[in-house]
Every structure is written in structure tokens, then in C-alpha cells.
User: What shape does this take?
Amino acid sequence: MQMEDSLVPADRPFRQMLQSPDVSRRKLLQMPGAAVPFPPLKVLSNGEPCVMFQARKLSLRYEKQKQLDLTERAFSPQKPVDTSQSVCRRDKATLVMRFGDVEDLTGLSIRLQLSNTLYESSGQWWFSVDSVSLLYNTTEEAVFNASEVYAPASSSYHCLHVSNLQRYSALLLPSTDHARRWAVTFTDFQIQAFNVTSGKFSPPSDCTTFLTPAILMGLITSLILLLVLAYALHMVIHLKHIEHDDEHKGDMYFPQTPEQPEHCCMESVVEKNIL
Assistant: This one.
């Protein structure tokens, strides 16, 4: 693993052209999540960690084959994974985990590309995981866009699931045809880069958004209740209107016309003549 002190002048990440990420979509969590079985993986530079990565479970599945659980091979301190090809710079970093041969896959590696960007509109540095790649069988590579995985540089990033599966919000988007054949899921994912101090994660910026399934169901329920309330209010007003009309009809006076008594008398005279 190498450390370069000079800035990389070339291609900045495309997200630098956008505005600063919306801080309101994230919240800093102070309560710890579920316990993870292994300590975080650390990439060292000059004896100090420059990248820290942790997950409670790391699973892969290629097409219809059985699922591969790489959690222990990635994070177990007894058999540390090979991270010798990882690189740290001031504004870019690459975390490479080399697993060797796994089941029918030869030379399996997982590579995370990270970048550190200053957004001038907010004057704040943000780090992001730009891509996650699977390298296997010597020449094949599956690349996933991970541009939604980002956090302030002073924080770590945490998400319950970072995956390309739709049921987990699909934060990993396939960028190649090979990637569409894979199912990749990191459970209880946490990562930090470029500003790691004291060898511990900073307070995490969580991936939770306002439109979680629970909040969405609450909004739908509230909408249904509002519709029921509006209908009930409409019916009450309608019934009061009908009641008011009935009372108004009861008070109405219908005077008899002058022709009515005369007509009535003429009918009586005709009846008497008949008798």
C-alpha cells in the first residue's frame, strides 16, 4: 500500500460539478447499531489508518449459484485479507480486498474507489464511494456505481444495507453487463476515509431518508384518514342542509285563491240538484 502526499490534478469526480449534497437527508447517529462479529478492516499509511471499513455481513451471489459469505475472510483478524494493493492519496483512495480462489471463482477481489471533494457552495469536504468492483477469473470485472454512498469528511458513512438488490433500495447500480449477473449485499455497512483519527469511526452519517417504508405507510394512512374525515364532514353539511330545507317548507303559508271558495260552492249546488 502506498501513500502519495501530492494532490491528483486530473479528473475530479463528476459529483464535484453538482451542488453540495443535501445535509437534511442525513442524520448523525449517536446510538450504536447491532454488534458486528469482527473489528473494522484498516488500511494503514505510515502506521496510521487512512481507510476504515466494516460490515456485519458480506455476501455475493453469481447468477443462480449458491450465495458466498465472505464476512470472515474479509474481517477476521486471525486470517486478514490481503489489502496490499490499496492506495491512499489526499483526495482519492482505493480499498482492495484480495480473496484468492473462492469456490469456482479464481482470483476474486473486491475494490472500492473513494474520493474526497470540497463543495465550494458549503465550504465542506465530503467523501464518497464512487464505485464498487468485483474482479474475478483473471479478466472479468463487474462494476457498480455507488455515488449515493457519501458523507461529510468529518463523519463516517453507515447504512443497514448497501446492495444492488431493489428490496434494499439498490444503492449499487450496475455499470457493466457483468454486474447485472451479480447480487452484492453489505449488511450494516460502515466506512470512513481521508479523515480517520484515533483509529475509530467518527459519528456516522446514516443513509436513512425521509421516505422509509414506515414513513411512507404513515403518509398513506394519514391520507386515507383525511379522505374519510373530508367525506364525513361533507355528509354532515349535506344532512344539515336537508334538515334546514325541511324546516323551511314547514313554515311556508299557501293562501287560498278567491276562485277556490266559489268553485267549492258551485260543486255543492250541483250535488244538491242531483239529489
User: Anything to note?
Assistant: The two ends are 131 Å apart (CA to CA). Residues 1-20, 22-33 have pLDDT under 50 and may be disordered.
